[in-house]
Specification:
By secondary structure, the chain is of the alpha+beta class. It contains 4 helices and 7 strands.
Length: 149
């Protein structure tokens, strides 16, 4: 599997989860607006073995964010790929042979950033949305809805 094939396969799996992701993004956006939070950080965690599983969690930057994060709880989790008896759930593609953890992480960030940008709620333009990896190995990506400068 080459980079393009991996990206296409991953995007297809992510698109199958869009309804729930849209719902959660809406909750996160509304909570940020109600609490006057200006920055929403989306942390992409790649599992230690880097075989394929990853998570994306939203958190808020700024003063007094703890209560808002606690209120949302697990609704802040946008993607959760786990190993089950029958394989990955949702069924993301395995890391291609020969790829390093860094290769996988870069492809995940690219695809997830593109996918989430298209899903950001209308009110998202009033906030800064950033996708990053907590380890800092990949430069943070600011997500901007089309038409936002």
């Amino acid at each position: 599997m080459d980079v393009r094939e991996y990206r296409d396969a991953l995007r297809s799996v992510l698109e199958s989860t869009e309804a729930e992701t849209l719902r959660r993004l809406g909750l996160i956006s509304r909570a940020a607006a109600e609490a006057d939070i200006e920055e929403i950080v989306l942390d992409l965690f790649v599992d230690d073995d880097a075989e394929g599983p990853f998570d994306v969690w939203a958190r808020f930057e700024g003063e007094s964010v703890f209560v808002t994060q606690q209120r949302l709880g697990d609704e802040r989790q946008l993607v959760d790929v786990v190993w089950t008896e029958s394989g990955w759930e949702p069924p993301v593609p395995d890391r291609p042979s020969g790829w390093t953890r860094a290769d996988l992480q870069e492809a995940l960030v690219d695809v997830v950033a593109e996918w989430l940008t298209a899903l950001l709620p209308t009110g998202a333009a009033d906030r800064v949305w950033v996708l990053q990896t907590p380890d800092g190995e990949i430069d943070p990506r600011e997500l901007r809805r089309p038409g936002r400068t």
